Prior knowledge:
The complex is a heterodimer of chains A (about 150) and B (about 180). Chain A has about 150 residues and is α+β, with helices and mostly antiparallel strands. Chain A has helices at about 1-5, 55-65, 80-90, 115-130, 135-149; strands spanning about 10, 15-20, 25, 30, 45-50, 75-80, 95-105, 105-110, 135. Chain B has about 180 residues and is an alpha+beta fold. Chain B has helices spanning about 1-15, 20, 30-40, 65-80, 90-105, 170-175; strands at about 110-115, 120-125, 130-135, 140-150, 155-160. Chain B has one domain (about 1-175). Chain B is built from six helices and five strands. At the A-B interface, helix 4 of A face strand 1, strand 2, strand 3, strand 4 and strand 5 of B.
Amino acid sequence: MxxxxxxxxxxxxxxxRYIKPSFIRNGCIDLVSFDLRDRKPPEKFVSFHKxxxxxxDLKFISAISYLSFTPKQNGxxxxxxxxxxxxxxxxxxxxxxxxxxxxxxxxxxxYHTNDLTKLQEVKTTLSYLALNQFKFVKDINxxxxxxxx
Amino acid sequence: MEIIYEKVDxxxxxxxxxxxxxxxxxxxxxxxxxxxxxxxSVEFDFSNSHNQLxxxxxxxxxxxxxxxFQKTLDDYLKEKKQKRYIKNISEKAAKNFLYLIPTxxxxxxxxxxxxxxGYVNITFTTYDNxxxxxxxxxxxxxxxxxxSKDKKIYKISGVVKxxxxxxFNNFTKVLRML
Lengths: 149, 178
């Protein structure tokens, strides 16, 4: 974990993440959306992208443009306000997560605990917060078409 | 008891040779009181993708969650073929999840395998648009957390510790928060 800690921390702004369709069901975002499952081990962070646009619709459009693959139409993009997320998740003496710059806009969220109950609470909080700023890819693309017109 | 054992034997065979036994569709639906005995007999083996089947026909087991769980296992094993580095499914956690099925059946949770641990993760939406999640581990522990908002965001988290598999139904006390 030590190598990624050398990277500059991100304390504010907005970060985005793609959620695949099978992780969105019954109106909620599965906690496994925040697992360390995307890259080869030892993966140390959950990938996000920092989006600097001020307009919310543009944030979603930028989030898609940063992806290195074509997202599925029934997948979704979530946006997290970094300051709010850190405040809501890190609500005890020791921090449970931090965001770090990787190669901007790419950035990573690091877990600082291995305690299963704490991790469950952290991921449940992330899932809850993500519901506030969440859009299906098809809706973002429709919006993009309207903007281009 | 003889009938129960017969069902257990049937279920065990069904797990191991599900295609062969799929023709026995007329078999009695397994009721809740016998469920623990059935699960006692289950042995998972995720090392071979042909052996992970629980069952294929819902008419044998009345719980729809079983077929949802089956799909979850299939999807994860497919993902693991591409991403060999993600954790193996914990066979003990999968079995512990089976004990929990009658308790959660009516709540239709999202079911997934936690890629960091190989345990079973379930997620529910609460009546006040919050999230309740639970991680079923290999140690008969269920780590749960409920996050919602009233004046501000509040959280209720903890761990359920089970010493006897027949006590998994006490998870209803956590589900009362839904």
